[in-house]
User: Which sequence fits this backbone?
């Protein structure tokens, strides 16, 4: 019993050490990512200043890491949502929906074109018959 208790204690200590190591690794990775994002914002700000002469007044080194990371995450989600709306339909029908509709319109347009050409032929014949009747009535009078 004492041996199994000691094994359990050692196992739990090793788990807590592993959890601590994992937590430390996650924090270091988040800080590294935040630092790279700050550098990206700084270089982008320099580009805007050089190309357009506009000073944005941002100081990315003053912002906390959580704000930098959450802003990047929100931006990625918005970009993903806009892409999804453009491809899959969104408000006005997306690229995939338009392609399907266009192919359906082309197929039905061909059928409608055939039907309208047949209707035009029938209407033209009826019009000729009417004109003949009118001219015949005029001659009789």
Assistant:
């Amino acid at each position: 019993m004492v041996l199994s208790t000691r094994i359990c204690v050692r196992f739990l200590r090793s788990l807590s050490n592993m959890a601590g190591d994992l937590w430390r690794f996650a924090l270091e990775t988040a800080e590294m990512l935040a630092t790279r994002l700050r550098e990206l914002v700084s270089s982008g700000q320099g580009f805007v200043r050089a190309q357009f002469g506009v000073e944005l007044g941002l100081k990315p080194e003053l912002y906390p890491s959580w704000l930098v990371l959450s802003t990047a995450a929100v931006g990625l989600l918005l970009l993903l949502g806009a892409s999804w709306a453009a491809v899959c339909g969104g408000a006005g029908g997306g690229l995939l929906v338009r392609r399907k509709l266009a192919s359906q319109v082309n197929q039905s347009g061909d059928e409608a074109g055939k039907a309208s050409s047949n209707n035009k032929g029938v209407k033209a014949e009826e019009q000729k018959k009417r004109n003949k009747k009118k001219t015949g009535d005029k001659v009789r009078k």
Notes: Helices lie at 2-52, 65-88, 95-140.
